Protein backbone atom coordinates (compact mmCIF):
# COMPACT_ATOMS: atom_id res chain seq x y z
CA UNK A 1 0.00 0.00 0.00
CA UNK A 2 2.89 2.33 0.76
CA UNK A 3 4.24 1.74 -2.73
CA UNK A 4 0.96 2.91 -4.25
CA UNK A 5 1.06 6.06 -2.13
CA UNK A 6 4.65 6.82 -3.10
CA UNK A 7 3.91 6.27 -6.80
CA UNK A 8 0.93 8.60 -6.47
CA UNK A 9 3.09 11.25 -4.80
CA UNK A 10 5.63 10.97 -7.59
CA UNK A 11 2.83 11.27 -10.14
CA UNK A 12 1.53 14.43 -8.45
CA UNK A 13 4.99 16.00 -8.55
CA UNK A 14 4.69 16.26 -12.34
CA UNK A 15 1.83 18.74 -11.98
CA UNK A 16 1.61 22.17 -10.36
CA UNK A 17 0.28 22.14 -6.81
CA UNK A 18 -2.72 24.24 -7.82
CA UNK A 19 -4.31 21.35 -9.75
CA UNK A 20 -3.52 18.52 -7.28
CA UNK A 21 -7.09 18.68 -5.96
CA UNK A 22 -8.55 18.28 -9.45
CA UNK A 23 -6.26 15.36 -10.20
CA UNK A 24 -7.10 13.65 -6.89
CA UNK A 25 -10.84 14.07 -7.40
CA UNK A 26 -10.70 12.83 -10.98
CA UNK A 27 -8.65 9.75 -10.02
CA UNK A 28 -11.04 8.97 -7.16
CA UNK A 29 -14.00 9.32 -9.51
CA UNK A 30 -12.35 7.04 -12.08
CA UNK A 31 -11.71 4.38 -9.41
CA UNK A 32 -15.31 4.56 -8.19
CA UNK A 33 -16.65 4.33 -11.75
CA UNK A 34 -14.33 1.42 -12.53
CA UNK A 35 -15.32 -0.50 -9.42
CA UNK A 36 -19.00 0.15 -10.13
CA UNK A 37 -18.64 -1.14 -13.70
CA UNK A 38 -16.84 -4.29 -12.54
CA UNK A 39 -19.46 -4.99 -9.88
CA UNK A 40 -22.28 -4.26 -12.31
CA UNK A 41 -20.77 -6.51 -14.97
CA UNK A 42 -19.67 -9.40 -12.74
CA UNK A 43 -22.21 -9.15 -9.92
CA UNK A 44 -23.53 -12.69 -10.47
CA UNK A 45 -20.01 -14.12 -10.30
CA UNK A 46 -19.29 -12.26 -7.06
CA UNK A 47 -22.48 -13.65 -5.50
CA UNK A 48 -21.58 -17.17 -6.66
CA UNK A 49 -18.07 -16.76 -5.30
CA UNK A 50 -19.38 -15.76 -1.88
CA UNK A 51 -22.03 -18.49 -1.80
CA UNK A 52 -19.90 -21.34 -3.11
CA UNK A 53 -16.61 -20.39 -1.48
CA UNK A 54 -17.16 -18.87 1.98
CA UNK A 55 -13.41 -18.43 2.46
CA UNK A 56 -13.50 -15.70 -0.20
CA UNK A 57 -15.43 -13.30 2.06
CA UNK A 58 -12.34 -12.14 4.03
CA UNK A 59 -10.41 -11.75 0.78
CA UNK A 60 -13.18 -9.62 -0.74
CA UNK A 61 -13.35 -7.54 2.46
CA UNK A 62 -9.60 -6.97 2.26
CA UNK A 63 -9.88 -5.86 -1.37
CA UNK A 64 -12.77 -3.54 -0.47
CA UNK A 65 -10.81 -2.04 2.45
CA UNK A 66 -7.79 -1.46 0.23
CA UNK A 67 -9.91 0.28 -2.40
CA UNK A 68 -11.50 2.47 0.27
CA UNK A 69 -8.07 3.36 1.69
CA UNK A 70 -6.87 4.41 -1.75
CA UNK A 71 -9.95 6.55 -2.34
CA UNK A 72 -9.63 8.15 1.11
CA UNK A 73 -5.96 8.84 0.42
CA UNK A 74 -6.80 10.44 -2.91
CA UNK A 75 -9.44 12.65 -1.37
CA UNK A 76 -7.33 13.77 1.60
CA UNK A 77 -4.02 14.28 -0.21
CA UNK A 78 -3.58 17.92 -1.16
Short description:
This protein has helices at residues 2-12, 20-41, 43-52, 56-76. With 78 residues, the chain is an all-alpha fold. It starts with a helix and ends with a helix.
- Quick one: overall form? elongated
How many domains, in number, for the residues? Answer: 1
Number of strands: 0
Largest sheet: none
Helicity level: over 70%
Order of helices and strands: HHHH
Whole-number radius of gyration? 15 Å
- pLDDT averaged over residues: 82
Structural class: mainly alpha
Uncertain runs are none
Terminus-to-terminus distance: 18 Å
Number of helices: 4
Strand content: under 5%
What does this structure look like?
Helix 2 runs antiparallel to helix 4 (56-76). The chain is elongated. The chain contains 4 helices and no strands. The protein has 78 residues and is mostly helical. 82% of the residues lie in helices and 0% in strands.
Structural descriptors:
0% strand; mainly alpha; elongated; 78 residues; 82% helix
Write the layout of secondary structure elements.
Blueprint: H1 2-12, H2 20-41, H3 43-52, H4 56-76
Helix pairs in contact: 2-4
